[in-house]
Amino acid sequence: MLNSLSLDAINTLAAIILLTDFMLVASSRMRSLTRIFAIQSLALGALAAVVAFETGAEHIYIVAVLSIVLKAVIIPRFIDYATTKIQVKREVEPLVKIPGSLLICAAITLLAYFVTEPLMQQGTAITSNCLAISFASVLIGMFLMVSRRKAITEIIGLLVVENGVFFAAISTTYSMPMIVELGVFFDVLVGVIIMGLFAFRINRTFDSIDTSILRGLKD
Amino acid sequence: MIITLILLPVAVALVCLLLNRYTKLVETASVVGAGLLLLLGSILVLHVFEEGIIDEGMWYLDQLGAFMLLIIVLIGFLAILYSVPYMRHEHENGEVSSNMLGLYYTFLFLFIFTMVLVVVSNNLGIVWIAVEGTTLVSAFLVGFYNKGTSLEAAWKYLIICSIGISLALLGTIFVYASSIDVLGENSDLHWTSLMAVAGQLDPAFLKIGFVLVLIGYGTKVGLAPMHTWLPDAHSQAPSPVSALLSGVLLNCAMYAVLRYHILMTHSSIGGAFSSGLLLLFGLLSLGIAAAFIITQKDYKRLLAYSSIEHMGIIAIGFGFGGFWGIFGALLHMFNHSMTKALLFFGAGNVLQKYKTKSIDGVRGLSRTMPYTSVLLLMGALAITGSPPFSVFTSEIMVLTGGIDQGNILPSLLYAGMIVIIFAAFMGHVVRMIFGDPPEGMEKGEVNKAGLIPMVALVVIILVMGIFIPDGLSDALRDIVALFGGQV
Hints:
Largest interface: A-B, 41 and 50 residues
Order of helices and strands of chain A: HHHHHHH
Strand content of chain A: under 5%
Oligomer: heterodimer
Number of strands of chain B: 2
Distance between the termini of chain B: 33 Å
Number of helices of chain A: 7
Number of strands of chain A: 0
Distance between the termini of chain A: 60 Å
Strand content of chain B: under 5%
């Protein structure tokens, strides 16, 4: 049976993930965004490692390590590098003010809980009660994307969505088949690099990466 | 066999990358590569149509996959044929450097590679990876011209489709979760393994999984209201790329939805739930497309909205179900991609001649470019569903399917909107073709070699409008049978 220490660890890490979601919404500095994202990815990787320990499925260890290396180290560094290189202003400039954003995210979390409740009762995984938090992560990531103006913050929003999806995989099925998991990591890495390159090009062409000026195309 | 098909476009892409600076060699390599791909693809398609499914575990080609593969290699080949004169013209006009030209072919083949990967993978996770891959690769092609509007289109495309595709991944995970109780640790997310136990999949997970997959991949299909990236991307990409996006990529995304739809029809939930959703999204797409086609001012966007319309028609066909609904929708996937490629090639010729995408800026095509204008007029008549072209046949089949299944109100809406779109679309095209050309516009085709693939497409849509080859129609029947109890 599940050892209570592991259960505590899983619950604590899940709570940290939800907390970092809210910190991302609340932070007003670009630098802290990447740091918080790195912490979130670290917590997620640790959670995967606990699950690997509990279930004895060795391939989840690989997933956990990859997740930490990629999303807690490489990608945040790349984004920091891009931010310095483009010389983005350090403020986040939200379209929705921070207190309002936090309220909306609280509502999103409640919604995620209600949507996933029937699924959580169905689930047999030791982590099935984390499903609500993973769903909330996906939705909060999307909210970040639509409510922040810079191309870089949109990338971070997308990464939070991605973390949420990864978390959902852990909470329902522990993980996906190894080859799929590797492919997804590859796509995420390539995706971030390509988006970074486009952010460079947008900055060069418009002299800004404020995506709200991308309004040239309409019917 | 299948692995050769997958690796061939990658090899050609590498060759194009290495030969980068030697434009002539890159072009030759591309045409030869596309020709080989067409040959190899056709052999595999014929094999599947005649002998049956090829199952290599990871790689799996049944009639449905083979049918999609046929569309990919055919349009892929014609798009490369058209690209050579088109891009050379862009190069001569200083729009594209020779370095960029090499990259163009490299990415075009990588794009084709990701699409081939979508239709030959048995693993639904790999299908997801490949669909995401199509976005990443084609974003470069959409933002190919280093202009503000192209970058804007590419950025929107990347962001909107990436959100969509994340939802599709979540859906894939839920479908995977629905199989864990039955298949246990052995569950490998292979479509064939899931189909084998479809009746025992957990309905709660499967249902929410399908909804997420439909919204996610539906974004790439261009179903309204997730379609907002599509008109921008299609209008900003170079014309041969628009043809591939519209004619092939949208179908590949629809193919991914279909795999899950088939799974649903065999599950304990039954097909009514997923069919109903497809019908709903289809009708909505048709309605939105009609509204924007009426008021359209840009002819490439006009074609893009027409693609939303036709993806809507395809979704409606599968939504109606029954033999004719499904058969018609499948046939429509083929017919739409051929006709739309023809129109985008024609639009490319017009763009290079008139240097504007505005419908009002183009007048007197019949006098300035007689060949293009005849082909374009035929394409326009075909896409709006006039006989004897093939789109007419499949649209009537879908309508028959709707009436057969007793979906009278949706059928009426469907027919009504097609008539409205016919009038609006033809109105725009007729204004472009007739009238007096702008001052100083000389007579003469800009892209004579580009007319060859256009003529080939006209022949295909005319022949397919008159009769459907037995081999193809048998294969389509086999695909309809996959949808199980609905027939």
